[in-house]
Specification:
five-stranded parallel β-sheet, 14 helices, 13 strands, about 45% helix, flat, disordered N terminus
Amino acid sequence: MEPRRRKLFGYHPETSSRPDSDSASVSNVGSNVKALAVSEVNALARKTLEREFGNLLVEGEISNLSAATSGHLYFTLKDEKAQISCAMWRNAARRLRFSPESGLQVQVRGRLTVYESGGRYQLIVESMEPAGLGDLERKFRELKADYEAKGWFAESLKKPLPYLPARIGIVTSLRGAAVRDLISTITARFARPSLLIADVIVQGPGAAAEIAAAIQRFNREQLVDVMIVGRGGGSLEDLWAFNEPLVVEAIHDSHIPVISAVGHEVDFSLADFVADYRAATPTAAGEMVLPKLSDLELHLGELRIRLTRTVTARLASARQQLQGHSKSWALREPRRLVESKVQRLDEIRLTLPKALRRRVALEQARLEALRRGVGLRLPQQRIALARERLSDWEQAMPTALQRRVESLRVALVERERLLAGLSPLRVLERGYSLTRDEETGEIIRSADTLQPHQRLRTRFAKGEIRSRVEGTSSEPEPDPLESDPQVGG
């Protein structure tokens, strides 16, 4: 009886005869069976996985998400026990209704396949929906919100970096590539920096305690002027030690300035927020902690040139001033200067007593005036003066009132006379009259304005008449008073 044979990745030995066939033989029993190439095995595995697992719905947490320039997305989907590599092509990524990010819990639908050139199987994601935050991401956000509420991320707490630190402390693992990049960057920028490296584990159990202890020791023993704390890139769980409260509180309590250099530029940890400065990468931290020696030498050269120019200019100015002073009258004839000052001193000695006497007399006069003024301000004297003025007013009041009344009476008579002279009734008493239109009351000043049958009212000094226009004439009749030579003014 033939032994029962199982298919391996969809391959059955009895049906394979060509190496380039999808079911080429992998058996090494017998000299007439040819071995498969590695690419053939991967091709068989890919076809089997795509046939058997063509439509899967998987839930997990996104980690190590990266977006290629082509538009494809590459990430890892994980749970507490395992992880799987995933790829999402550009056309599927364009249909996403949200922005995926590391730490997000998602449900994806896709198919299993094998990346043949790498020899690993992966999930090709065709659709993705959010299912909530992952545990680590949720914890990260909760811790960040808590420390932010305490004010630990405030800019006012950030300490300045020393310009040229004599000693630089580095808290990281000596087994990582990040420390080598950091050391090479620092030594390339400065000739012989003094570096103290605390070798700690940066991932896994116990990492947070070692990192915090190294930070505390640097502070306790005053070993360095500035400190770099960090490691290379990784997933959220790889960098988790730098989110632990032990590390965050040690950085916050440090009186030595701390530069956080955790992961790559896209990676963020709580150490980045609480540190005095955040470097995108460990290499960037090396560039931040020390200036370039060549830049310093260039700057010193520029300062030397500026200093030389300034000193030269000052010397030239001082030399010019000295030459001017050497030609001055005071230096050419110092005796005359001294004699002039002596003469001035004698004049002051002669005039000073007189000036002092005048000043004393002036001050005495001012004092006497003040004394008199103070005496006038005494209540008894002020009351006496007020009584005298009141008595004078009482004696002068009747005469003043009588004069005032007489003056007002004379003014009233004069105004009555003027008013009577201006009254229109006086004009009427002299024989004149005032004619108005009966309807409108308008004064008639010219016969040209009258109309036939227009009704008028004429007022005399005593009484008035009503009349009606029968006719008008543009030439007035002669006034008999004007023609009488005996009548005139």
